[in-house]
Write a structure and sequence with these properties.
Mean pLDDT: 84
Number of helices: 1
Number of strands: 6
Distance between the termini: 11 Å
Oligomer: single chain
Shape: globular
Strand content: 35-45%
Length: 79
């Protein structure tokens, strides 16, 4: 994990299942994302908040990055 990203990433807490959230994948799963998923949003959502592609957030200790197609990818942990 890059410390610079974690220090600027907002702490968003846990995803609330009643709010809009983009799917979260492990970095290792990145290549296995199904091409037929109807995501293609151009942004990620976490608890109804919209984030641009390339943005980082902290969910607890997990650092997430918003990737193309509008999915979160776990990129590491913050202590």
């Amino acid at each position: 994990m890059t410390k610079g990203h974690a220090s600027h990433a907002p702490q968003v807490g846990a995803p609330d299942p009643e709010l809009k959230n983009s799917p979260i994948f492990d970095e290792a799963d990145d290549e296995s994302l199904s091409l037929d998923l109807e995501l293609e949003t151009g942004a990620c959502y976490f608890n109804n908040e919209r984030y641009a592609l390339g943005d980082y957030v902290l969910s607890g200790t997990e650092l997430l990055r918003c990737e193309g197609r509008g999915v979160w990818v776990r990129t590491g942990e913050s202590r």
